[in-house]
Amino acid sequence: MALLNNHSGKIAEAGCDEAGRGCLAGPVFAAAVILPPDFYHPDINDSKQISEKKRDELRYIIEREAISYAVSRMDAPDIDKYNILWASVRTMHKALDKLKTRPDHIIIDGNRFIPYKKVQHDCIIRGDGIYTSIAAASILAKTYRDDYMKKLHKRYPHYQWDTNKGYPTEAHRVAIQNHGITVYHRRSFQLLPPPAQLSLFHEE
């Protein structure tokens, strides 16, 4: 089923989404995308429903065709400071700040948001599977984050971030147990079971 191209009927409508909320390590990334009113691509969908290869292909199409797009990130210390939900929202604000075209309306994947300036917005649960601009934002956020984690993997190969991207796989948790944590790990998250988590921080 084709995704809907516009929610409000306005030309400058920005779709926003994030990537990396459930990870144990690495930043959260967010993207904002304003697409032309007649834009259509049959393969654009929620980034989780698309293969990595296809996401990489679509990223360049979105960047080429968008009226405006921007991607931002927030690192682990600020995630720990604000908590992951509000860190994600703040990162969306950072992406919106970077847009070259000011949006008339914003649509956000999810059900929580902090109003951005005086721009009207709507939160849409599972919006990345409904509206093209949100799906496009999810693809940009995901691909930019994956690239970032692959670069970090070269510095910290024990954690296998080239494949797990910081998500809580068994191999990632075993590596934390064996090698400790890095500055990229989210200390407010449950990295290991409680007794091991306490000893993890005591060993620093």
Quick recap:
By secondary structure, this protein is of the alpha/beta class. The chain has helices spanning 52-65, 76-82, 84-98, 132-155, 161-164, 170-179, 194-202; strands at residues 13-19, 28-34, 68-74, 105-109, 120-124.
Summarize the helix and strand pattern as letters.
Answer: EEHEHHEEHHHH
Helix content: 40-55%
Shape: globular
Gyration radius (Cα, Å) is 18 Å
- Cα end-to-end separation: 51 Å
Strand adjacency order, main sheet: 3-2-1-4-5
Number of strands: 5
As for the CATH topology of the largest domain, it is: Nucleotidyltransferase, domain 5
Overall average pLDDT? 92
Number of helices: 7
Q: How many domains would you count in the coordinates?
A: 2
- Please name the fourth-level CATH homologous superfamily of the largest domain: Ribonuclease H-like superfamily/Ribonuclease H
CATH architecture of the largest domain: 2-Layer Sandwich
Q: State the CATH class of the largest domain.
A: Alpha Beta
Report the biggest beta sheet as strand number plus sense, adding barrel if it closes. 5 strands, mixed
Low-pLDDT runs: none
State which percent range the strand residues make up: 15-25%
Structural class, from helix and strand content? Answer: alpha/beta
